[in-house]
Every structure is written in structure tokens, then in C-alpha cells.
Amino acid sequence: MSAKKSFITPPFIAGLTASVLVVIKLVFGLSSGSMAVVSSALDSLGDCLVSAINFFALKKASAQPNEKFNFGYGKIEALTTLFEGFFIMGAGLLVAYGGVMKILNPEPIDFSIGAVVMVISLVMTTALVIYLRRAAAKYDSMIIYADATHYQVDLLTNAATLAALIVVHFSGLVIIDALFGIGVSAYIVLQAMPLIKESVYMLLDGSLPTEITDEIKELIAKKEPILSTHLIRTRKSGNICYFGVHLVFDPNITLAKAHECEAELEKEIKERFSQNKWIFEIHFDITDDEEIERGEI
């Protein structure tokens, strides 16, 4: 069943997991007095919001094209990922702020309580990241991939928090907790950048990866009726790939034969890149009129 049509989607599972972690971290974080644990609880609270948005965005992105949105709603995935990228960055800055406050106002930390909650969080988050990574690969969804990256960042922050608690317990230096938090915040901000970059690239109709385009060109080159190609245009919206090209045929070829060749080409591309949905915009030419089409003549 499609991840976009089923009620129990990856974002739903992620949100449910985050909700449980919020309660655990907040209760035990306040009890232990660890700023790192409390900051992690606030981050998990944000995770709930992000996963809720992703849940609805993933469903809307699969809606069929209509008269108002002729190309569907695939770019909702890019918009949601852009939001999530900035959200992750904001969470990183919040953790940094909490670390600075901890340095200015150090408080004792209950190691046993904090350590237990972070171990629980590590186990749950590790399982969630593995699940989301597999789902992202299966459905080729930018939203699920962003969610996986988000929780992977959480996994690191949880590990760093646990490490900070251990160091503080044996050294007695409470400031270590704050320094770990600030260090992790820098990593969180860096992890947000690729998500923002990728989502903006999709929103600007960036072309498909060069390796995909090159493989398609090789498939076209093997089609003997096709003399040459020009005006290749590609883009991606959600998990839908758009491929446009002008194919040059011999003037004496029949329209039926040209269409047969086109159908075979589309079938081969779909089979070669079956993880994506494809929409083709293929034009037949009898001469290479690229300069005219580009308005250069």
C-alpha cells in the first residue's frame, strides 16, 4: 500500500514515537535537572509538530492534478522539507541558547535519572531512523527523507547528551553538559543545510541528476530510427520525474513508426528507473531545429 494513501504512514509513526519521547524526556529531564535532557524534550516536542505537518503534506502531495494545479501537488514535499530544514536549524539554535544559559546558571544534575531516559530515547530513535530510512528509499519521498535526517540528528543529540551526563558524573564539572549541548547545536545547524538546499533546488525546477540524464541519453542513442535529439529538459516534483526531449527522425518515417519508437523508449526509461513516476513531453522533428526552438534564430 502506498505510504501516501495509508493512514499509518511513516510521518504518523514518527509523530507517535516523538510524542512518547516528549513525555519521557520532559518528566525525567525536569527531575534530573539536566538542561541537555530538557532541551532534547523541547526538540522532541517540535518533532511532533513537524511529523504532523509531514503526515498531511505527504497525503496532499499525492492528490491528482486538477484544473487549477495541472501538474499536481508534488512540490508540497519540497515546501515541507524547506520548512523542516529551517525548523531543524531553529532547534539547533535553541539548544545552543540553552547551553549558554546553563553556563551562566549552572545547576546540579541527577545522573541516574538522566542516563536512563537518554538510553531509552537512543533505542527508540535508532529504531525509528532505520524505519524511516527504509521507507524513504522505498517511496522515494523527500518528506520521509527529511524526517529521517531530522531524527538522525536527534539520535546524535541523544548520544551526546548521554555522553555529557557520563562525563559530568565522573568529573563533577556541570559546565560539560552545557558545552556538549552547544557542540551538538552546531552539528544540527550543519545537518539542516542540505535539506534547505535540496528543497530550494526542487522548487526552482532543478534538473535531474546528470547520471540519470546520461543513462537516458544512452537509451535514446540505441534507438536506430532516432537520428538525433535536442532540447532535453528535466525536472522533479515530489517523486514524479519530468522528461522532455525533441527527437529527430528521418522525414520518410511513418507517424505510427515514430510513436512506436517513442512508446518503447518510455517503457525502457520507466523500467530502468522504476522507483520514480514519469511524465514525458516528447516532440517529433524531421530536422534539428534547436536554434529556432530556443529563439536564437
The gist of it:
The chain has 297 residues and is mainly alpha-helical. It is 68% helix and 10% strand.
Structure description:
- With 297 residues, this protein is mainly alpha-helical.
- Helix content is 68%, strand content 10%.
- It has 9 helices and 3 strands; from the N terminus they run αααααααββαβα.
- It has a 3-stranded mixed β-sheet, with helices on one face.
- A hairpin with a 2-residue loop joins β1 and β2 (240-249).
- The longest helix is centred in the middle third of the chain and has 30 residues, at 142-171.
- The protein is elongated and about 85 Å long.
- The N and C termini lie far apart (51 Å).
List keywords for this structure.
297 residues, mainly alpha, 3-stranded mixed beta sheet, 9 helices, elongated
How many β strands by DSSP? 3
Radius of gyration: 25 Å
Parts with pLDDT < 50 across at least 5 consecutive residues? none
Tell me, briefly, the overall form.
elongated
The helix fraction, in percent, is 55-70%
- The rounded distance between the terminal residues' Cα atoms is 51 Å
> What pattern of helices and strands is seen along the backbone?
HHHHHHHEEHEH
Given the helix and strand composition, which structural class is it? mainly alpha
Mean pLDDT: 81
